[in-house]
TrEMBL record:
UniProt keyword list: 4Fe-4S, Electron transport, Iron, Iron-sulfur, Metal-binding, Repeat, Transport
Highest taxon of the lineage: Bacteria
Protein's name in the database: Ferredoxin
Pfam families: Fer4_21
InterPro entries in alphabetical order: 4Fe4S_Fe-S-bd (IPR017896), 4Fe4S_Fe_S_CS (IPR017900), Fe-S_Ferredoxin (IPR050572)
GO molecular function per UniProt: 4 iron, 4 sulfur cluster binding; metal ion binding
UniProt signal peptide: none
Domain 4Fe-4S ferredoxin-type: 4-33, 34-63
Amino acid sequence: MVKRKAQVNQNDCVACGACQKVCPKSALSIHRGCYALVDENLCVGCGLCTKVCPTNAIDVIKKEVTL
Ligand code: SF4
Ligand code: SF4
């Protein structure tokens, strides 16, 4: 099944935490203060995080997921 999931470009992320604050599913965490990580089991692909990221480090992509 194909679903929409957020994907963080770790090279562009500055670990500001803005995405984490707006995510309605708490799918984002900041890994060791370095970059954001997406929990794909929680992400619903709403795209809110992509709108607040100051460095455009997040894309929502279509991904094959196994249920
Ligand atoms: S796309 Fe939506 S659910 Fe997924 S990480 Fe971003 S804000 Fe959270
Ligand atoms: S909003 Fe962007 S720069 Fe800030 S932590 Fe999230 S992915 Fe990184």
